[in-house]
Amino acid sequence: MAEGQATAKRSAWSGKWAFILAGAASAVGLGNMWRFPYLAAKFGGGTFLFTYFVLAFTFGISLLLLETALGRHTKLSAIGAFRHFGKRFAWIGILASLVPFIITPYYCIIGGWVFKYFAAYMAGGASALSDGGTYFLGFLYGPTESYAWMLVFMALVFIIVALGVKRGIEKANRVMMPLLLVMALGLAIYVCCQPGALEGLAYYLIPNFAGVDVGGLILNAMGQMFYSLSLAMGIMITYGSYLDSKESLSGSCLAIAGFDLVVSFIAGALIVPAAYLAMGGAPTSAGPSLMFITLPEIFVTMGGAANVIGVVFFLLVLFAALTSAISLTETCVSILCDAFKWTRKRGMIAAFVVVVVVGIFVNLGYNGLGSLRLFGMEILDFFDFVSNSVLMPIVALLTCIAVGWFIRERVTRRTASGEEESVELRGTDVIAEEVRISAPFRAQKAWAVMVKFVAPVLVVVILVWNLIGVFGG
């Protein structure tokens, strides 16, 4: 048995579509809602959409396929998957495993914010929420409420994960993902049917090259795609390890990328026209300020429908946050179970303790440790910077180098005469062999070039760009 190979019975998806929904659920998150529309509006509308599409289905799909195949081949999460090819690769898995443990706590904090706003709209608080940010900041810096909603969100996530892959994650995704898509589409149609909204929709869809910073366009599209597809954080390795060998890897990964693109596109078709209706122009902010300050002000301009729109929108965002948090948490649990040979129950308890303790610490950055700055950043922003801007590009780079050039494995093949022969596979051929188990791999040569030569350069560009953005230069 190869080093690091799993020995215990492993959880498994019920089929290909369960995996696709889970992968799409992981990919569809807060970034689709609060960053993609802003970037599309900022970088030429259709120009950004086309650039994002090209990058997602070349660079993005290549790394997505690599990680998923790596997980299915080894039947292990990140640390074990890399150790499978020798102890010298285990440290790449360790770095990859740090990412979900850093992201999950602060993601649950933001999920708590979303939950709070959903509840506030359910209570009919549309007018109170549209006050230029006073409500949000009061909640955020308050002594207890932000902790309570964080814990409520965490509890819901861990309950679903505790039910297991089939009874918990699969069932949750089968409900939330279709509803998420229906709600997003319904809201977008409603907004676009309002008088004057078509101007915003045209701004969003029609390519506009005037004044567009081409470098900024490509870098932002590349960065958004990289983070949106859940790359380099161990999730797709873990989810791939639950996938049966008979299911097509390349087809499944294309479906995941496609679903993520569709949700991002619809989010833009909702938010950009809504901004035009309320403000007479494209959204001028991204992230929490767009989600919790600007959008409530936009919704309240829609009169009596404000509360209904707020409820549906924040339920949509809550589902997006939950599905991503579930993926992150499941990855943490799987990593602990594989690394320490723990039972799933023990791994769940350990992951819960870590996420709660770290979450409380990060939340203290808004009350209790409000004066603490790490490289000039609040604690949550620092965690986000370390995980998304530093560790993830480094992990992706090391993964491409290791898989592209250094891993090797001996396999047994049957010759045309029916005899068995032992063959040593190297680099991308190892992963390509796994992809071919379930379906022909016609794009193997192009994929290998992307993994070995193109992707490493692009990932380095993302890393340098991230560092320059924070530290200047």
Descriptors:
473 residues; mainly alpha; 2 strands
Report on the architecture of this protein:
The chain is mainly α and about 475 residues long. Helices cover about 75% and strands about 5% of the residues. It has a two-stranded antiparallel sheet with strand order 1-2. The longest helix has about 35 residues, at about 305-340. The chain starts with 15 loop residues before the first helix and ends with a helix. Residues about 1-5 have low confidence and may be disordered.
Break the fold down into its secondary structure elements and pairings:
Layout: H1 16-27, H2 30-34, H3 36-42, H4 46-74, H5 78-83, H6 90-122, H7 126-129, H8 134-140, H9 145-162, H10 165-192, H11 197-205, H12 214-228, H13 235-241, H14 249-279, H15 288-300, H16 306-340, H17 344-363, H18 379-406, E1 408-414, E2 420-426, H19 428-436, H20 444-471
Antiparallel strand pairs: 1-2
Summarize the structure.
The protein has 473 residues and is mainly α. The chain has helices spanning 16-27, 30-34, 36-42, 46-74, 78-83, 90-122, 126-129, 134-140, 145-162, 165-192, 197-205, 214-228, 235-241, 249-279, 288-300, 306-340, 344-363, 379-406, 428-436, 444-471; strands at residues 408-414, 420-426.
Largest sheet: 2 strands, antiparallel
Major beta sheet, strand line-up: 1-2
User: What proportion of the residues is helical, as a percent range?
Assistant: over 70%
Note the quaternary state here: single chain
Compute the separation of the termini in Å.
50 Å
Mean pLDDT: 93
Radius of gyration: 22 Å
Number of helices: 20
How many strands? 2
How would you spell out the order of helices and strands?
A: HHHHHHHHHHHHHHHHHHEEHH
Spans of at least 5 consecutive residues with low confidence: 1-7
**What fraction of residues sit in β-strands?**
under 5%
* Shape category: globular
- Determine the structural class based on helices, strands and strand pairing: mainly alpha
